[in-house]
Amino acid sequence: MAEPHDPYAALRYGGFRLFLSGKFLLTVALQMQAIVASWMIYEQTKDPFALGLIGLTEAIPAISLALPGGFLADRYNRRKLMLLSCMLMLLASAGLVAYTCLDYRSIGTWPAYLVIFFIGLARGFYNPAQAALWGQLLPREKYVNGSVWNSSLWQVGAVTGPALGGLCYAWLGPALTSLIICLLMLVVLICYLFIRNMPMTVSDRSESVSAALKTGIRFFFSQQVLLSAVSLDLFAVLFGGAVALLPAFADQVLHTGPEGLGFLRSAPAIGAVIMAGIMAFRPPSKAAGKLMLACVAGFGICMIVFALSTHFWLSLTALILSGMLDNVSVVIRSTILQSYTPDEMRGRVAAVNSIFVGSSNEIGAFESGLAARLLGLVNSVIFGGTMTLAVVGITWKKAPRLRDLDL
């Protein structure tokens, strides 16, 4: 007789709980910071393209350092790499506090972009290390449940952060909001300090950096399921996202301020949290590949509806539904990455995934800003949603192993 499903199985491991707590608080802090930085930049420029440049500013260092970060995550202590990365984020956030305490309108926007650049630098090392570490904190049979909770807590942070950021910005101003962000990052460091060091497998310490990176890249591209799942999310996020343009939609289309922007920014994560609660009890195992493709297609449709809407509540609903569908795809992809990757390659494979998907949000933000300038605000998001549907159709036809995947 099969054992009953335990929706809280992964949370019974203390190290994983500390990991999730730190990741949740860091997500809240960075989302709050995104609201502060994006609203300050848009307030000074009134230019959607300037919002797109935010994504590019963070993506360039994050992508450039992802592979070296993945190599380090497979050779050295992953927890210490996460601590060092978070310390760099804290220093960058302290710089934002200084900027907001001054007459920032007379200084210009470059200090805000500089803070975002340093956050991208830190992410280049943090993302592979954290993606590799959590697979060590759980036994293999808990990976699906761990993926659900990992995604869920990230999404709860993504709900809480923008809403808090918008409300704090409106009530307390940018300086105090930036100080709260720094305090949250201090708590993140404490959480990670208490995670017990875990032994890790290293395949060959004598292997050179370039050879080790080539081995990881070859492994990733030799796995059709890995490659197709990550590519699907890459192009869906690259073309389908509208988050970078939310300040412009809030101002020009929906006529709301930073409070409304905070709720719009939180809406996809609200949907993701709702879906995470469902998946904790009904994990996406059977026909996972077909489910992933269907959800990415639904995400594209939600983006088109959002673009056409001129009513705040309809726009909010479309974003909530997009978050529900996107979270299914995220959980399935995360489970595939952990299940198909040996421990000694987790850092490098996570780095390649970070280049493909982790930074596609920022590259997608730049694409959105550029498309908004060329096509107009609304047409750019309609174009992105349509391209997402086209990507799903191509993947369905060209990647049968993903299409027929069961977890």
Characterization of the model:
The structure is a single chain. The protein has 407 residues and is mostly helical. The protein has one domain (10-195, 209-403): Up-down Bundle (Growth Hormone, Chain: A). It has 17 helices and no strands. Helix 9 runs antiparallel to helix 13 (312-340) and helix 15 packs across helix 16. The mean pLDDT is 81.
Mean pLDDT: 81
Number of domains: 1
Count of separate DSSP helical elements: 17
Q: In CATH's first tier, which class applies?
A: Mainly Alpha
CATH H level, superfamily name: MFS general substrate transporter like domains
Percent of residues in helices comes to over 70%
Distance between the termini: 20 Å
Give the overall form.
Answer: globular
**Strand-residue fraction?**
under 5%
* Alpha-beta classification: mainly alpha
The arrangement of helices and strands along the chain is HHHHHHHHHHHHHHHHH
List keywords for this structure.
17 helices; 0% strand; 407 residues; mainly alpha; Growth Hormone, Chain: A; globular
Please outline what is shown here.
The chain is mainly α and 407 residues long. The chain has helices spanning 14-45, 48-75, 78-101, 104-107, 110-136, 143-172, 174-193, 209-222, 224-240, 246-253, 258-281, 288-308, 312-340, 346-358, 360-375, 377-398, 400-403. Helix content is 82%, strand content 0%.
